[in-house]
């Protein structure tokens, strides 16, 4: 029994260390900190941020596992699992993700869990399959670091929608006739202590300029349960692409 427990512990500690080549193995398993693995992960992150239709950019948190399969007649297929963290840069923000700040836990941040397949051919990576799921940190984790910090509210909450529309109307009224339209509601938090609603939203000017605004709208003694969550998927279902695309 002790030998079995030791064997299980060693298997867990093996983690993402390089797996040796051996009989029956048709793939190789490089280290998670291998430069080639990290390059593949960064290509995956770029793909995520280019593909996001709305919300905030994500950055790499850690690489969980990687397998590399030989392809015929040439090339290799990288199967990689990564964890991502939400940043404070909106997807329409041109700032490179490497320069974006990671959203702090006390802001009720969102994390992602992604599976990718990337084809490496002639030294270049291309995504052939991607599937990501994302969810906010638990309310319990937020409360551990900040008891009074607001939690995320569902984006379809009528109070959220009303606050965004009211804030946009007030914003347009102060801009000398410039016509801004609501592009999206990115984040929303109901603040119980000060009885206000914080909404993060993006508006697009009719000439194409983009402006990111955070506005405050007065609340009416509305309280929100700690079990409410705003969940969204980066892609939803997995996407498959022709190899080399």
Element layout with pairings:
Blueprint (H helix, E strand, L loop, with lengths): L1 H13 L20 H17 L4 E15 L5 E15 L19 E12 L2 E13 L2 H7 L5 E2 L5 H16 L6 E12 L4 E10 L4 E9 L20 E2 L5
GO molecular function, one term: cysteine-type endopeptidase inhibitor activity
Subcellular location: Secreted
Keywords: Disulfide bond, Glycoprotein, Repeat, Secreted, Signal
Describe the protein:
Residues 232-245 have a biased composition (Basic residues). Residues 222-245 are annotated as: Disordered. One of its GO terms (cellular component) is extracellular space. This is Alpha-2-HS-glycoprotein. This protein has 245 residues and is of the alpha+beta class. Helices cover 22% and strands 37% of the residues. The chain has four helices and nine strands, in the order ααββββαβαββββ. The strands form two sheets. It has a five-stranded antiparallel beta sheet with strand order 1-2-3-4-9. A four-stranded antiparallel beta sheet has the order 5-6-7-8. Mean pLDDT is 76; it is low at 1-15, 18-23 and 203-245.
Structural class: alpha+beta
Read across the widest sheet, the strand sequence of neighbours is 1-2-3-4-9
Helix content: 10-25%
Instruction: Kindly identify the CATH topology of the largest domain.
Output: Nuclear Transport Factor 2, Chain: A
Task: List the domain count as a whole number.
Answer: 2
Largest β-sheet summary:
5 strands, antiparallel
Number of helical elements: 4
List unreliable stretches of 5+ residues.
1-15, 18-23, 203-245
CATH domain class of the largest domain: Alpha Beta
Mean pLDDT: 76
Our Rg estimate from Cα atoms comes to: 22 Å
The succession of helices and strands, N to C, reads HHEEEEHEHEEEE
Q: Which percent range describes the beta-strand content?
A: 35-45%
Cα-to-Cα separation, first versus last residue:
51 Å
Instruction: Please tell me what the overall shape is.
Output: elongated
Give me the count of strands: 9
CATH architecture label name of the largest domain: Roll
